[in-house]
Design goal:
By secondary structure, this protein is of the alpha+beta class. The protein contains 16 helices and 16 strands. A 7-stranded antiparallel β-sheet has the order 13-10-12-11-15-16-14, with helices on both faces. Strands 5-6-9-7-8 form a 5-stranded antiparallel β-sheet. It has a 4-stranded mixed β-sheet with strand order 1-2-4-3. Helix 8 packs antiparallel against helix 10. Bound molecules: flavin-adenine dinucleotide, D-malate and zinc ion.
Length: about 475
C-alpha cells in the first residue's frame, strides 16, 4: 500500500498548535520532548514487533475536550490519526502505517464513578484493565473481561477491539456488558452516551458501532460497564486428554456437571504446553505428556460446594476415561500457576522470531481439524520438517474452546513469504467453507483487512463503508485498516 496523498504532512505550524493546546509534555515530537530521554519509538511499533510506523508526533490528551479539539483540528487540516490504548493489539491496528499522528489515551486514566448496588463502573478509556479490576476487587466486584495483556491494555482499547478473553463464556461479550460510551467523532463532536442504564431502547444503539470499531469512527474517551459481584470461590483444574474428541466430551460433561459455576473452558494442545516448558524451563502441573490439555475454571459463592462439585467432576471424567490425568488448584499459587500455562502461550510463540496468528470462530467439532490440516500442508510444502533449516517451527492450536474460538498459530524462524503464501488465503478459504469467522476477537486491523470478504458479504461490507463515510468522510481515523 501507498501513503494516501490526500493527507497533509506535519508542519511546524501544526506542531505549534498541538503544543499550545496540550503543552510540550503531552505533545511529544519525534524523540524530543521536555523529558529528553523520552523516545517515541514504542508508539510506532506493536506488541509483536511485526509492524512499524513512522509517526513523528504523539499526542497525549488529558480530557475529552482536548480529544475533541485535536480531532477537529486534524479533520480540518487533513491530518490522519491512530488512536492508541495499551498497544497490545495483535492485528497491527494500534500503530501508524505511515506518518499518522498517534493519539495515546494513557493520560485519561481516572475511574469516574462506581455504584456498588448496581455494579456499574464509569471509567476513562485509558484506565489499565488490571487497575480497573484491582479497584473493583476492593469493592467485591470483578471486571467482566480478563485477558493475558491485562497489565498493559486499556479498557478503552478493550472496547475498541471488542476483546473476548478468558471468561466470555461466563460474563458474555462487551456488546452486552458495556452500557454506555463517550466518544469523540472526527469532526470534534462529543457523543455523550455515557448512560448507566441496563435497558435503553430509545432509537438505534449507536454506541455498539464503537465496540469493535477499532478506532475507525472516533475515539472512545470513557465507558460505563456493568460488573458482576466478585465470586467468593474460584477454582481451576488442568487436564491431560488423549484427543480433541475427548476434549469435546469433557466440555459437555463440564456443562452438565458444573453448569452454573463454570467460568472458563480453555483448550491448549500438547505442542503449546511442550513449547512453554522448553522455552521457559518451567515445571508443568502434570507429569508426562498428553496430546491435549483443558483448563476449567469455576466461580461461585460457596467454597466447599464448588470444590466438591469440581472434585466430583474430576472423578467422573477420570472414571469415564474422558481425561487421562488431572489436577486441581489447592491454593492461590497453584491457581496462578495453572492459569499461566494458558496465558503464557502468546508470549513464547514469538521466541523464534516470527509467528503467524489466526484468531478464528469455527463450529466446535471442526475446530482442531484445521490445525492438523495446516501442519500437513506446511509439511508437504517442505516448509516444516525435522531440521532447523525449515522456516516453520511448528503448527499449534489453543484457545477459548468454550466459545468455539481457535487460535491457530504458526511460529516461524523469522517472517517468511513462502510460509505466508502457503497459509493465505488457504486458511481463510477453509474457515469460509465452514461458515466460520476470520476474526473472532482480535479484530481486523491491517492483517485481516484484505480478508473481510471471507466472513462478510458485499451488502454488509457496503453498509460498513457507508457508515465509515458518514462519520469520517475525510477518512482521517485509523486509515489503511479495517475495511
Ligand atoms: P491497542 O492495542 O492500543 O489498540 C487496539 C485497537 O483499538 C487499535 O485499532 C486502536 O486504534 C484502537 N483503540 C485503542 N484505544 C482506543 C480508544 N480509546 N478509542 C478508539 N480506538 C481505540 N484479545 C482478546 O480478545 N482476547 C484475549 O484473550 C487476548 N489476549 C491477549 C494476550 C496478550 C498477551 C496480548 C499481547 C494481547 C491479547 N489480546 C487479546 C489482544 C487484544 O486485542 C488486546 O490485548 C486489547 O483488547 C487491546 O487493548 P489495547 O488498549 O492494548 O489497545
Ligand atoms: C489468547 O487467547 O491467548 C489471546 O487471544 C492471544 C493469542 O491469541 O495469542
Ligand atoms: Zn484469545
Amino acid at each position: 500500500i501507498k501513503r494516501d496523498s490526500k493527507f497533509a504532512t506535519l508542519t511546524q505550524e501544526h506542531v505549534k498548535y498541538f503544543q499550545g493546546l496540550l503543552g510540550s509534555e503531552s505533545a511529544v515530537l519525534d524523540g524530543v520532548s521536555k523529558d529528553a530521554s523520552e523516545d517515541i519509538e514504542p508508539y510506532n511499533s506493536d506488541w509483536m514487533r511485526k509492524f512499524r510506523g513512522h509517526a513523528q508526533l504523539v499526542l497525549r490528551p488529558g480530557s475529552t475536550e482536548e480529544v475533541s479539539k485535536i480531532l477537529k483540528y486534524c479533520n480540518e487540516n487533513m491530518l490522519a490519526v491512530v488512536p492508541q490504548g495499551g498497544n497490545t493489539g495483535l492485528v497491527g491496528g494500534s500503530v501508524p502505517v505511515f506518518d499518522e499522528i498517534v493519539i495515546s489515551m494513557q493520560k485519561m486514566n481516572k475511574i469516574r464513578s462506581f455504584d456498588d448496588v448496581s455494579g456499574i463502573l464509569v471509567a476513562d478509556a485509558g484506565v489499565i484493565l488490571e487497575v480497573a479490576d484491582n479497584y473493583l476487587a476492593e469493592k467485591n466486584h470483578i471486571f467482566p473481561l480478563d485477558l493475558g495483556a491485562k497489565g498493559s491494555c486499556h479498557v478503552g482499547g478493550n472496547v475498541a477491539t471488542n476483546a473476548g478473553g478468558l471468561r466470555l463464556l461466563r460474563y458474555g461479550s462487551l456488546h452486552g456488558s458495556v452500557l454506555g460510551i463517550e466518544a469523540v467523532l472526527p469532526d470534534g463532536r462529543i457523543m455523550n452516551d455515557l448512560v448507566t442504564l441496563r435497558k435503553n431502547n430509545t432509537g438505534y444503539d449507536l454506541k455498539q458501532l464503537f465496540i469493535g470499531g477499532e478506532g475507525t469512527l472516533g475515539i472512545v474517551t470513557a465507558i460505563s460497564i456493568i460488573c458482576p459481584q466478585r465470586p467468593q470461590a474460584v477454582n481451576v483444574a488442568y487436564f491431560g486428554l488423549e484427543s480433541y474428541d475427548h476434549a469435546q466430551k469433557a466440555f459437555r460433561a463440564a456443562k452438565t456437571q458444573l453448569g452454573e459455576i463454570l467460568s472458563a473452558f480453555e483448550m491448549m494442545d500438547g505442542r503449546t504446553q511442550k513449547m512453554l516448558r522448553d522455552v521457559t524451563g518451567r515445571k508443568m502441573p502434570l507429569e508426562g505428556e498428553h496430546p491435549f490439555y483443558c483448563l476449567i475454571e469455576t466461580s461461585g459463592s460457596n467454597t466447599d460446594h464448588d470444590s466438591e462439585k469440581l472434585q466430583n467432576f474430576l472423578e467422573h471424567v477420570m472414571e469415564q476415561e474422558i481425561v487421562a490425568d488431572g489436577v486441581m488448584s489447592e491454593n492461590q499459587t497453584q491457581f496462578a500457576d495453572i492459569w499461566s500455562c494458558r496465558e503464557g502461550i502468546t508470549e513464547i510463540l514469538g521466541h523464534w522470531g516470527g509467528v503467524y496468528k489466526y484468531d478464528l470462530s469455527l463450529p466446535i467439532g471442526d475446530l482442531y481439524a484445521l490445525v492438523d490440516e495446516t501442519r500437513e500442508r506446511l509439511t508437504q510444502a517442505g516448509l516444516l520438517g525435522d531440521s532447523e533449516s525449515h522456516p516453520v517451527v511448528d503448527v499449534v492450536g489453543y484457545g477459548h474452546m468454550g466459545d468455539a474460538n481457535l487460535h491457530l498459530n504458526i511460529p516461524t524462524r523469522g517472517y517468511n513469504k513462502d510460509v505466508e503464501k502457503a497459509l493465505e488465503p488457504w486458511v481463510y478459504e477453509w474457515v469460509q467453507q465452514k461458515n466460520g469467522s476470520i476474526s473472532a476477537e482480535h479484530g481486523l486491523g491491517v492483517t485481516k483487512k484484505p480478508y473481510i470478504g471471507y466472513s462478510r458479504d458485499d451488502t454488509m461490507i457496503g453498509m460498513m463503508k457507508q457508515i465509515k463515510n458518514l462519520y469520517d468522510p475525510n477518512g482521517i481515523m485509523n486509515p489503511y485498516k479495517y475495511i
